[in-house]
Amino acid sequence: MLTHYNAHSQPRASRRWLFLLAALLILYSYSTPTFAVTGELDLTSTAIGFFAVAIFVLAYALVMAEEKIHMRKSKPVLVAAGIIWGLIGWVYVQNGMSDASEYAFRMTLLEFTELMLFLLVAMTYINAMEERRVFDALRSWMLRKGFNYRTLFWLTGGLAFILSPIADNLTTALLMCAVITKVAEGDKRFINLACINIVVAANAGGAFSPFGDITTLMVWQAGIIQFQEFFTLFLPSLVNFLIPALVMSLFIKNQKPASVYEEVLLKRGARRIIGLFLLTILTAVICHTVLHLPPVLGMMTGLGYLQFFGFYLRKSLPRSLERKRERYSRRGDTKKLAQLGSVVPFDVFNRVARAEWDTLLFFYGVVMCVGGLGFMGYLGLMSEALYSNWDATWANIVLGVVSAVVDNIPVMFAVLTMQPDMSHGHWLLITLTAGVGGSLLSIGSAAGVAVMGQARGSYTFMGHLRWTPVILLGYIASIAVHLWLNADSFTVY
User: Which residues form the Citrate transporter-like domain (predicted)?
Assistant: First the structure.
């Protein structure tokens, strides 16, 4: 999930339970297929290794207690990353192998840096569109139409499914939730159903696009699945959304909410920024598929597009304001004249500053922590337990369910780092299950946690849990559709 967090959104790790299970399974790292998973020294049965695991478990416990202790989640994992790699460095220096540990650290840092810069550009564009009131305008349009509850249920779910592959599942879920809570204010039963539908739809939509979720982005950047190949997951993802939606829609009263009027005017340049974002995505795809260069090159080039356009908006602002003042004065539109007085120049660096830096630093800390644990040899043990003793299909299905309890990012990091010998169909399967498995619980995805914060009291953990069996049907059906439609891709050549 390309992510943009608001004040209410908390990363789902901070709400996790079943801590021992989390401690066991969140032993992951991220790398390209050429990066060595395990160092030359096996530290898994040494005191140094046990101490490193204990440090990570303690750090992650503090992350999960974020809401209780009110300490930002990046702090403990940043310190833990330093301690773990410090331990590795000390052991390898003692053995005269410091070059190996230095190389491993640099490679892990390089892969994180590529992903962080990619996410930073995406966050900047989303923030720019939010500042230009693109999302407010979409919400206003839906409010003015006066749809009934059933239509609103399908419209918000459908838009969540369509928009999340581009705008990411978290941003889309928050936008649709804002519509539901405003239109159906006070109707907790409908808000709960609609929010469940939105979370399921946003996660399903994000599963068939490299831009829909952080996990799909990781798979794409690793070069395992090509850009166009993600769309083979479209029908399985659609099934994952439609089956629960069809069942839940039968329990919605066919009534119409009170009409809500809200007028929102797009700020100057809003549509062109949308166009630049699509051009940026296209540039990233071309860099990866045609030039065989990292997609982050295309994203950073796209940031340059936005900077140039921001320069144009600032330079042309006085002339634009003067034209509008003349036009509104002739019309006698005092309301719009007053709005012109509050116009401030667009500044792209303000959008960069509004990125969720705590999340990006948390991401660094966790990747480096588990990169170190993987280098010590723990991921080799985990790979042996999962993919040597189990069939890859069942392992991937179970990992999708686990992602609802733990987090899909560590699950996907673990699989990418372990690099099990799987067919292309199995790689598509873990991409699907890690993407949609989080819908099984309200705390199972960043979208669900954020929506719980926004619709506090109406959309709850227990309210979502009552519909988990229905969502599980969609999860099973989506896997079945993938196994059927893409059966040829499961052949290992």
Answer: 52-435
Q: How far apart are CA 193 and CA 135, in angstroms?
A: 22
Mean pLDDT of 293-314: 87
pTM over 0.70: no
Q: How far apart are CA 411 and CA 392, in angstroms?
A: 14
CA distance 305 to 301: 7
Which of 23-32, 218-227, 417-426, 431-440 ranks highest by mean pLDDT?
431-440
Q: Is residue 270 classed as helix, strand or coil in its secondary structure?
A: helix
Query: Residue 481 and residue 204: Cα distance in Å, rounded?
Result: 14
Going through 138-253 in order, the beta strands assigned E by DSSP cover none
CA distance 487 to 476: 16
- Which amino acid appears at position 107 of this protein? M
Listed residue (470, 446, 80) closest to 247, CA to CA: 470
Q: Are 47 and 383 in contact (CB under 8 A)?
A: no
**If you search the block for the tokens 């608001």, which residue do you land on?**
6
* Number of residues that this document lists for the chain: 493
Q: What is the 3-state secondary structure (H, E, C) of 30-76?
A: CCCCCCCCCCCCCCCCCHHHHHHHHHHHHHHHHHHCHHHHCCCCHHH
Query: What's the CA gap between 355 and 360, in Å, rounded?
Result: 9
Backbone angles phi, psi at 154, to 5 degrees: -75, -35
DSSP state of 35: S
Amino acid at 151: T
Specify the 3-state DSSP secondary structure of 211.
Answer: coil
Across 38-68, b (16+ Cβ under 10 Å) vs e yields bbebebbeeebbeebbebbbebbebbbebee
Token pair in block for residue 356: 């969720």
User: Which residue is associated with the tokens 């954020």?
Assistant: 450
Round to whole Å and give the CA distance between 458 and 193: 9
Contact assessment for residue 369 and residue 81, using Cβ atoms and an 8 Å cutoff? yes
Q: What rounded mean pLDDT belongs to the chain?
A: 78
Report the distance separating Cα 309 and Cα 438, nearest Å: 38
In the chain, what's the furthest Cα-to-Cα distance?
82
Closest CA to 308 of 282, 288, 279, 285: 279
Q: Could you give the angle at the alpha carbon of 280 between the alpha carbons of 275 and 283, nearest 5°?
A: 125
